């Protein structure tokens, strides 16, 4: 019996923990643990973060981004490279910035038990939705 061929996009879609690399102003990478959601049909990775963090500032200056994920056993990895756009932060709980975060949550986790509370927190936390348009995916499975 032969194993199915490895598809790094499948691992990317299954992973809910990864490391996002952005580019600091001095050119060095800045790495952040994130909770990504990969939409293979749209070819995008969605990540919720906060305004004022290093990754947000870096992406506003240089939108190139790379996400790396690994399998739970550490024997497979996938890397996605692309260009990020940022939406938010928003000030209106029903405005487009917060609505984008609602759609992210629904896609990644399903329905929230209290959408009014969620919307209020997205505003108070100054949440930003990072959308990485994926240009290239690669990876491997060991053994």
UniProtKB/TrEMBL annotation:
It comes from the Bacteria. One of its GO terms (molecular function) is coenzyme F420 binding. SUPFAM superfamilies: FMN-binding split barrel. Pfam families: PNPOx_N. The keyword Transmembrane does not apply. Gene3D superfamilies: Electron Transport, Fmn-binding Protein, Chain A. One of its GO terms (cellular component) is cytosol. Residues 9-138 form the Pyridoxamine 5'-phosphate oxidase N-terminal domain. Keywords: Oxidoreductase. The keyword Oxidoreductase applies. PANTHER family: F420H(2)-DEPENDENT REDUCTASE RV1155, HEME OXYGENASE HI_0854-RELATED. NCBIfam families: Rv1155_F420 (TIGR03618). This is F420-dependent protein. It comes from Parafrankia colletiae.
